[in-house]
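Two quick folds needed for the group meeting slides. Do the first one here.
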Amino acid sequence: MKGVAEAAQVAHLVSYVLSKVRWAIEEDRKRKGKLKNGLAFIKGEMELVTAQVADNEENLEDATQETRILQLQELAYDIEDFIEGLSVPGGGSGFILTAMGMDSRPRELDRIDYFKENIERLRKWQPTAIASCQQHIFRGSTDHGAASSPGTSGSSEPPLHTRCRQESKLVGIAKPKEEILQLLSTAASGGRQQQLRVVSIVGRRGLGKTTLARVVYEDPAVVEQFTHRAWVVASGCKGADPQALLNRIHRDFQRGTAGTTTTDLPDKSSGGYVYEMQGIGEAESESLFWGRMSNRLNRSNALDDGLQSILQKCDGLPLAVISVANHLQGQGHNMLVHDCKHVDQALGNYLTGTDATRAFQKIRRALAECYDNLPDHVHRTCLLSTSMFPKGHQINRKSLVRKLIAEGLVVPDVRLEKEDVAHHCLNKLIDHNIIDPILIGVNSMVKRCQVHGIMLEFTVHKSVYKNFVTLIHNDDHLPKRRTPYPIRRLSIHYGTTESTRLAREMELSFIRWLMIRSSDLIDFKACRLLRVLDLEGCKGLGKGAIGDICELLFLKYLSLRGSDVNKITKKVKKLQCLETLDIRETQVKSLPIEIIMLPRLVYLFGQFELPHLPNETGTFFSEDSSLHTLAGVVINNDCCGLEQIMVHARNLKKVKIWYKKTTPSNNSTFQYKSFRKKMNSQKPDKMDKSLLLSSIEERFTGKKALESISIDSSDLAKDFLSFLKAPCAIRSIKLQGLLGCLPDSVTLSRLRLLNELHLVSTGLGCEALSVLQILPCLVYLNLVESSDGLWGGDFIVQCDGFPSLQRLRFQAPKLPKVDIRQGALRLLTSLQLFCLESSVTMSYFPFPLMSETTQLELWLGVIGISRLEHLNEVLLHSSLGDAKVQAWKRIAMEQKNLPHVKKQSK
């Protein structure tokens, strides 16, 4: 009877469980329907609110607009967090959890109701008096309300030409004026540069471009040389229409000369030179500042020191220096170091208008126009994101793009992918001189950039006001006051224990982007919604910290570059959303298989050995892996798992390989043993390299063809060249290590898709390298040697040599003699000579039977510059002497395109 009772009890339990399952299934269906309908409702309502906001986009005086946009932004973040949480890998929902009493969907439906209420409130929302007041203050940044600022009522500025005459004595204006006059004199001479018609002056706002143009325009030499002159302000033409601008110029011309028609003007505007105006130096900034101050001021060393930080933030921008001087001039002889510190701390408020003063009105307007005139929200977001970095930091462009994508701040459009959209936005910021290029890459793309001091101050305070970032830099906290909005992005730089204390007191449960540099770590477990984590250079990343990071299920971007991390645990498999992992310059020497098997991992950077991958992983790489960039892998005689990845990873496009030769051990892998049976006549190290090279050869062509490969190894590079043959779809090849020779001219001539080639420390002489000029589609060639004397002979480029080359770069202690023959390098636009000396030992001296240009070319070691008709830039070593730099500039003045000559950034 006992057995029957137990069976009945079990049957009852099973029946009860089945009833719960049936109930859970039904509830799941109902809640799924409610959740689906709720999300659809949110989508429609958010579109309506967004449309209402867009309709008011041009109504800058609407006091509700800025605050309403800010609240809409915060609501959008909350909804995004909620949506992503529904499908986060490792989470749990559905009818099974419902049966266990753990279903989260009742809370999800509550959130739907919460979102509905907030959307409805936004649609009907009216500003409070406080919001109106805050909005009015902020709108001072656009100077619409400048008249209400102290001392501005009834005031007006003198006319432009009067101001330019007053400002013509600005420090630093003489040299650019002289250079512009020289260009115009060359154009008017009717000589070799007769085709030059337009000289454009470009640069950051506030540098004095208009002042420079005006003083040149009114210079007696210009008045005498040019009978037709017109001064037209483009902003005065309706809609900045080009035809309207031409009409205005035409009217000015007609005042003094008859017979000129509008249709004649475009013909007189062909050919030109872009003059890039630079900021003034530190000494000139000080001179400009003190020249504006009252003579009664008691100047002291303490006061000089107090001004240094302000002038550094002005970063050579004359208008900024003048604004600071005008503001402090009101203090007269009573100005103290305390006043300087106050201006230093409040500079961002003066620039954005939250602390409006008349002295900063012009610089405030200039900066606000830079921001407001950007094409759209995505461009402004890209600019605001740069406020995460401290002053003077060189921003890695590609890393920033990956962070923006990981955080969801850029979205694809109908023509471009997300990455292309982000690059396009950054290019626009660089073209508009809002962001400064610091390092130019091999394809003329800016690799590193920087926001100059005064624009960074503006951007930081704009970002803080919009609740885009929260900053703790040098223990200084922005914003200073608590806001009603959660922290979304936090940047901590150069902090002490005080910075750590401030960060640990913050509510971080909504944070999406965290950057810590040179500061103590915080509790990562509190940052459950984190998408971007940048810990470059941080210390204290032991097992516990890495374990906590592995619990961040939303994480998409993780940089541990330069940190003290030495091991990545297997718990990393929890990071199913991870797209980028950067462990360069760390002590991590090997990776667990769990990292390689992350399904969304796209970019993997470091210098590590791969684990041995079983054969069955081939299916994962061919079907589920997203891996695009693998840079880079350390291999030895036993090539480990790289062959598997090379053969099967269908999305893999970029690979970097280091080769480390070792002695084979007794416990060789299965791959090693099985392959040895097939190739038992070869040496062990050669055998495994052949296996790898065979897998690389499979990626030469077809849908799985690589785009880029980099090999740092003399042995492996030589073997790679022996495998290299047409057809080959690889577009970029970088080889580092001693090479015996290059492929023959027949092989090279068939490599019609290769457009980028880097050869580093190959030991090849100029004669051996000259075979490269047969490459039909090569666009960029980079030749680097770290030792002296390896480039024997002359680098002679024959007629029709390098038919497609646009950028040629030499980097070595000495530049070989370069001889460019007629018809060679027809498309070359950029010549980059990062060499301190020339192998040509002759000195420059006047020689009557030889033209000055020829003499200079012989002295500089590059013959035939005049034959490069499309050359538009010459980049020189940062430490090259002034005499040779000036010699290059004299040669450039004789060129058709007047190429820019400048030193590389240090």
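Then this one, please, same format:
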Amino acid sequence: MKILQPDWVTHDDKSIFSIDIHPNGDKFATGGQGNDSGRVVIWNLKPVINEEAEKDKNVPRILCQMDNHLACVNCVRWSGNGQMLASCADDRLIMIWKKSAGGGMGSFGSTVKFAEHWRCAATLRGHAGDVLDLAWSPADVFIASCSVDNTVIIWDAKEFPQILQVMKGHTGLVKGVTWDPVGKFIASQSDDKTLKIWKTHDFSLYKTITEPFEECGGTTHILRLSWSPDGQYLVSAHAMNGGGPTAQIIERDGWKCDKDFVGHRKAVTCVRFHNSIMKRTAPKTNKSQQYCCLAVGARDKSLSVWLTALQRPLVVIHDLFQDSILDLSWSHNGYILLACSGDGKVSCLQFSAEELGTPLSEDEKNSLYQRMYGKDRITDLALIEPGKELIIENPYLFKAMQEKLTAPTLIPQSAAPATPAKAPEPGPSVFHPAISQDSPPQRKIMKQIETKTADGKRRITPMFIPLNDDVGEPAVGSSGNGQFSSSTASKSSIITVEKADEPVPSTSRSSSNVVDQDDIDKLTEDTVKLDIRLTKCANQPPTTAVFPPDPPEDPKQKAPIQTMDTGPPPVTGKATPLPKTTLRVHGNYRVQVQNDSIKTGFGVLCKVIGHLITLPKDDKKIWETLIGSPVVCVSLSKKTVLCCSLDGSIRFLDIHTGAPILPAMSLTSPAVHCCFSPNSNLGAVLTENCTLRVWDLQEQCVFLSGTCRDIVTNSYPSVMHLSDQGVPFIILANGSSFTYSKKLESWLITNSADPIMRHGLFGSRIGLTPRNIKAYPLSTIQSFGPSASKLNPMAFLENSNKAWQTPAMLSFIQNQIKITENINSPDEFRFWHTMLGFQLATHGTEEKVRQILDGLFGTAYRIDGEIMGFTKATLIRDILDQLKTQPKWQRIYTEYDDQLKMRSGMMPPDDVPEVPSPLVLPGEGEEEDEEADGDAKMDTAAP
């Protein structure tokens, strides 16, 4: 051991009250009195321990000096990561310092330039008196301060200067504070002759210890207590035993106070454990020992160093200073001990590995924590029993656990309409115990077209309502059943057109008659957004409507008319020509289809006319084309018109000019559905004989060719949609829905009468959020099925305690994840991972939680690979964020959180060595040889 006392480490001969070594071991900070102010100095440690560096003028001694405090600085403490330095003073302030780029200047008016520049990043104001001591929590989440105002304040280190808690209970000046390294407790010591243990899960008082301090008479300026790095022992300052001053050992197990460090002749002022757990081979037995190292300073100007494996101190140094020792600091992984005194001096003690032992590696320390607490390095979780209080071991989880766990929502709440919808009409209801039964708010249809015939009858042109909720996007699909896509205006109205000459047609479809341009001009692009309401019919026994109409939002207003004309319902699965005159509108473009408009010697021609709506009352015809077979279905996009004819031919026309984009193509049977992708790059057709084709209009090639025979055995397609990625969705008349995976060459089930699917849709929020086919295709498609709405609400309640419910929901969610991955829906992919975390947090088992998380981690040590645009770390974090709100998952959360942090930026750790024997206390271990230097011994007293 060597003792060094650099005379150049000084505060201009003023008192130094605190000292702390940086975690990196290359610098240290001192705090104390300056010239007419408090002073904080950051020193270079290398010149202190290296004589050559001390003599080298190019090696700076002072790295930075801060004179911002208005009164004497009482404590300085580095954060665990070394990025922040906290200082407190008699000016009632706490300052948080952070390093800035470049060097720094001295105090105001000084020309001295320092090697480093540290700026005050935050000033914490909350104490009503001098602040005497500071302590950072594990992981630097909080910082605790104590003051002569008898309080301890917990500050949120993530959101300075926010106060998390003010702990009141002491009746005297609070002079010392320290965190349990396990994160379960915080301890404070006061002049009121008590040491108090506080719980970190709510910062309430847990234990008050008074016995060792009852005989204490005089006071000290500070009472710096310390917790052992293994969390097993708390050592206090200024206790008494048999009339002599001691450093009291308080065991975590039962808070027993039957051992202490004795020998100092005056009150103990500060104690400080080495940050590492040490190990060595016992000299006589050659057995491996684990122990902690502690330094004790007192008012008798002497310093002692103890190993908990020995009965006596390792070394004692008398009269090290001319005044009381006020603070101590160990290098984090080294053998250096710094001490400061009220006489303004600093001493450095250099030990060797033979003297102190070897620090445990991180893996060995993890193994020790695992054995002691069941958790690597941080926590142990004792599962709570009914009626007992659960103590949160990890203090950072306290905030999260105060928040009520709620099911995640697919669509952000800010995007949902603020006004709730009116109560639905009697009929099948959707029920969820945690969700209101009110239907989600939806926009009412703002404009419809009404025509009056010569006989006085009113005819309402039916409107096709797309699944899209995006301006200018094409409809989901259209079949030849008299529907058309229309815009909506800002005011609710019905356009009335007088028709004196045309008789009422006798066709089974409602006729979309020619409308006056003065009325059509009101259908402009700024009103394209439509609601998701549509009633489909079939000319066969009635089936449940896939798109039930919503009630009007205002009961005083007349309900918007959505149904078709009376008469025989159309056959959705059979291609039949459109009415003689049919309109389609998209943005500023209106396309009119006139079947049987021209009779020739070769047959009847169909006319297709394109109009551009530029200004009010200005509807300009821009193109016209002829088709030699009646049109059975037509669809528009912002670029293209798709016309499908009865003879099986299809045509892609430019919506601006009417010119063909692709040559006319023939399919084996006429189309019953056609649609575009929202971005207008893809077009799809579904025919009577179940042929499905998707074309890439930009590349002018086929994108997908298949059949849907596998899914229409018991029903027929009712609606078709195509995503931007070319993924088709088909909803059948019975409510089932499917999507096609090109990679798997199979139809994926998105909705069916399967009990697991029914339970999953019913137990989640599907159908109760605004629909958005472009952003959330899977959930929007699933919301149209009758499975959830037909389920009896009482069935859910009756089965709420059934054992099958949780595994069924997990199976449903995991299947949803796989579907979203196949259809390339990233927002839904992440949402269902979050929903998986919610389900695991509320009803999962430890085995299932570990299975899911281990599956995401995989075997690789780095998890920066992406899935659907998200890193695996992001998905794991989403699940962990759900788990952290439930106290029962605290241990697993911390375990996987640590693993996530390690694997996200570190290489795999080395093999974990065998765990040595437990720690031992003074009097319990091997006794050192009696030949030890007599000058290094202290007088000892029995406990």
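Slide caption for protein two: The chain has a mean pLDDT of 76.
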